[in-house]
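Q: I'm writing up a methods section and want to include an example of the input and output format. Could you take the sequence below and give the corresponding predicted structure tokens, formatted cleanly so I can copy it straight into the document?
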Amino acid sequence: MEYNEYEEHTLSELWDLLENGEERLKELLAAPVNYYIPGDSMTYMSAMSQCWGIEGAKEEIRELEAEISRRCRSDKEE
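A: Here is the clean output for your methods example:
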């Protein structure tokens, strides 16, 4: 069985987490872009950290949407 980190959350809590995740993504996308200067490891890490943060926020949103969808489908089937 696959681990589900949202298993113990209520549907209402999941919607709140989704809203917070979307706000976080908006903030990350609105932040100034960190550019990479070739040969400079600090700018590389800064730019990649920004990319990883954005991708992580998108992934969290996808997971929350999938969990909400799964629960809504199972409620309709019952």
